[in-house]
Amino acid sequence: MLAASKSGGCLGDKTMPWTMLLVTVRAEIAAAQGRASTQAKAVQTLLAAGHDSTDAEYELFRELDGLTLLRERLRSIEALRDCPVAA
Hints:
Blueprint: E1 3-5, E2 15-17, H1 18-48, H2 54-82
Parallel strand pairs: 1-2
Helix pairs in contact: 1-2
């Protein structure tokens, strides 16, 4: 994972600005939300048709777990960004 610089600028090839890091994680969250929504509709469709939805439910919970981790990552990055820089 790439680290962000406190100054908001790139420091070599191992860091990226906070804004870019936040935009990237937010985009990953949006994509995961879309996948989870699609998977939830698949589960509903299977249940409505009276079919076994075990595999679809597993995939839905996998997407939801990933979404939770991404949201935690976003909160952590925001918290780090807001920490004062040590002198």
